[in-house]
Amino acid sequence: MHDPEYGHGHHHEEHSPEEVLALLKYMADHTHHHAEELHELAHSAGGDAEHLIHDACDSFQSGIGKLEEALRLLNKEG
Description:
By secondary structure, the protein is an all-alpha fold. It has one domain (18-77). The protein has two helices and no strands. The longest helix has 31 residues, at 47-77. It is elongated, with a radius of gyration of 16 Å. The two termini are 30 Å apart. The mean pLDDT is 86.
């Protein structure tokens, strides 16, 4: 269940197929950028925090891969 405090209430806006593709591409690119920034921060953190941040980067990369695969599927369907 989504927490409404974070803008994920029960109302879901409908998007056109073109909007879905554009938004997914933007989000994948944007998330990739944040993963790169976190990777750089990890080196400055050092110690156990560095390892945890690197683990978070791996999770981001996994999620980005799923977004990119969804984009490929949607592109084939359109």
